[in-house]
């Protein structure tokens, strides 16, 4: 339910802002608005507002919206006194302004959302690297424990997420990733080869495959189950687990695997830091038995558990900006994400990037639910990213999209007169086939991920 609510709210806001851009500029240009609709299909709710009695409606199919304007080209009879308020009577620049206002509104929303994050003390993992696994490209390149990434291919890096995003171009092009790193007061350059990555690795965990991983911080107890072995042993929320049976614990996943492999013949000795106090706690795992997911006739798998939720703590960087700095940050972030989206789409068209990377409504809904569960920071970031994507998508030169209409207007300016109705109908049908095709591919990818 959380996923559905988060998805519908985000989509509703983004569609409303997009259509509001068209609406406001059209009103400013003197065009009469007949209907403002969020969603498609038979309206569930309608009301009329203003001198023009504009009909505002909410419809059941939430994958878009529209603003219907007075327009002679729609074939509906128009009262002579109102002809001057028809959209088609606007000058070419004004028509273009109305069309571009929708995507522009999405970009402005993204700028504001990113600015809000910038002013709110956004925390992200610092770009500090762990010792790479032997045999990985990062190990071969000489990446060391504690290397702090300052730049990639000459572009400054703020966080590990920023680093991961900026690695993608080089991976797609099969070019070396050039990192400027600092460690122990000295700076150096490392070049990580990407030509050995397996095909399709971009769709998986490419940073781990390359050996570029976050330096682990402490393992901390996030929560405890009531009457669990961990609670009975005296473990408390906030405790930092440093060792297991005398061996250092570097990552939460490592500790989880060791606990699951343990039996109940003897307690595990956990070395714990609690504030300034160092403790050793004896925890006897509780054994559980789980059926084999692949073979129902196979013996059940035995796993140890202690009933503690573990969290990996990493070094964090904080983005905390003033209002003007935050707006500049939001504008720069929106520009970066727009350019990145266009580059990736171009690589899909050229065949250098798999169409499997295209996501549809199912994946977007899943991301909405996940980000909402993490917290408002993640959810606002998700909305900003989708707003950028919606703006970029609508500016593509496809006839049924805003970008396609701008192409019509550009050609009309060169030709000196509008194109025939027949030409527009044919090209819009082609554009509709293209958009539906993209939606089918995206939905197929979503279902493949869901079922695979």
UniProtKB/TrEMBL annotation:
Cofactor: Zn(2+)
Subcellular localization, as worded in the UniProt entry: Membrane
Membrane-topology descriptor: Multi-pass membrane protein
Catalytic class of the enzyme: hydrolase
Any one of the GO BP annotations: proteolysis
Alphabetical list of PROSITE patterns matching this protein: PDZ (PS50106)
Pfam families in UniProt: PDZ_6, Peptidase_M50
EC number assigned by the record: 3.4.24.-
Transmembrane segments annotated in the record for this chain: 96-117, 376-396, 426-444
Example of a GO MF term: metal ion binding
Domain PDZ: 199-249
One Gene Ontology term, aspect cellular component: membrane
Keywords, sorted A to Z: Hydrolase, Membrane, Metal-binding, Metalloprotease, Protease, Transmembrane, Transmembrane helix, Zinc
Gene3D superfamilies assigned to the protein according to its UniProt record, in alphabetical order: 2.30.42.10
Highest taxon, organism lineage: Bacteria
PANTHER family, sorted: MEMBRANE METALLOPROTEASE ARASP2, CHLOROPLASTIC-RELATED, REGULATOR OF SIGMA-E PROTEASE RSEP
Family: Belongs to the peptidase M50B family.
NCBIfam families reported for this sequence: RIP metalloprotease RseP
Protein name: Zinc metalloprotease
Organism annotation: Lautropia dentalis
